[in-house]
């Protein structure tokens, strides 16, 4: 039996306490009214003007030297036109008179459109009410990102566990209790997440994360009316939306509960009846999961940007949390091995988990590129704005997620021998987990806080709180049962798994 070490338990509790304090600080320091925002905008304006004044002073300092260089260049370029060049000059003049106006008209139109777009963005960036909503959303969004990441990470582990059951895999039963330990976080994670959904729906403490929930947004004649969102109101409406959430979270937790219960009962059984129940239940669950996962990604993530859509998005989100769940299983396994537990888990088991970490990272990259390339190439304004916002305003996190989720796993895990070396796997796992947290950050933050983002106290504190809660719940669950299932039909094959 595993014993939860006092050091690790204390560490997890400290993380939660620090996280709670930071989360509270984030909500307390968020602006409460327009006056608070106006002060912030005035400070930003003063800072910008100070920067412009410094730039102007620098320009004046170099201006005389620049003028001398210009005069020298002008004198050097002065030539006498020869007679044979007169005809060419005349031809060019005619062409210029006929073509230039058309080119100028097109350029002017593009310039006007660009100016109008920039003017709209600048207006939103300095509109006090708009900025107020963004800054009030910031602590909520930080909490939401961390909460949904850890909950879906657990779902990734649960899906992986169900796949092993249905495939009747012979290599993995010695890891089942680790998988069940990781998935134990699903219940508390789901409860907290559901509360956050209600907070968004009822606008608790100025929570305006989902714009399609704004008052009067589907009512013609209302100042908030949005024709696109009104067209989606048959699907995006609170009763149907919250009913779907209740259904998905309930079924996921019921499967986790009964699957774990049957697995424990199998240890004391005289036949394989409980194992067969789990096989059938897992097959049904996977069918439900693949449908509910896609709908969930539309409801809880894509609807934050309610004008945007992508047919690949469900698969993209799945790849992100699936590889995160497998990585969490690997990290917990390596920790338990380092403490002398899981004596039946050998380097071949570790190697197989590393292969999944590597393979699903490549699969995620394929979906990342496919979604990006198709939308960017089609250049449909309603679609491409999703990536324009992230590339322009979230440059570091956008490309950083790509590097952490593809480049580093490739470099660290492509070699077969590296897939068995613990410290290399841990490095790769850290990159994957942090990278996919950043990936969820990129999915949600641009639609809720716009360009008013930065990694501050709310973001770090939310991550620390849910990490501490995850560690506490998972390792507490591991103490409840033996780490090796005794009567699984494939347990002996799994114990002697080598290649």
Account of the protein in words:
- It is a single chain.
- The protein is mainly α and 499 residues long.
- 77% of the residues lie in helices and 0% in strands.
- It has 16 helices and no strands.
- It is globular, with a radius of gyration of 29 Å.
- The two termini are 28 Å apart.
- The relative contact order is 0.14.
- About 11% of the residues have low confidence.
Shape: globular
Structural class comes to mainly alpha
Mean pLDDT: 86
Q: Level of helix content?
A: over 70%
Order of helices and strands: HHHHHHHHHHHHHHHH
- Low-pLDDT sequence parts: 70-123
Supply Rg: 29 Å
Q: Biggest β-sheet: count, sense, barrel?
A: none
| Tally of separate helices | 16
Strand tally: 0
Work out the strand percent.
under 5%
What gap, in angstroms, lies between the N and C termini? 28 Å
Quick tags:
499 residues; mainly alpha
What layout of secondary structure does this protein have?
Blueprint: H1 6-29, H2 34-77, H3 86-126, H4 128-167, H5 176-183, H6 186-201, H7 227-231, H8 238-268, H9 273-300, H10 313-338, H11 347-378, H12 381-393, H13 395-413, H14 422-449, H15 457-478, H16 491-495
Helix pairs in contact: 1-15, 2-4, 4-5, 4-6, 4-9, 4-10, 4-14, 4-15, 5-15, 6-8, 8-9, 9-10, 10-11, 10-14, 11-13, 12-13, 13-14
Quick structural gist:
The chain has 499 residues and is mainly α. The chain contains 16 helices and no strands. The longest helix is centred in the N-terminal third of the chain and has 44 residues, at 34-77.
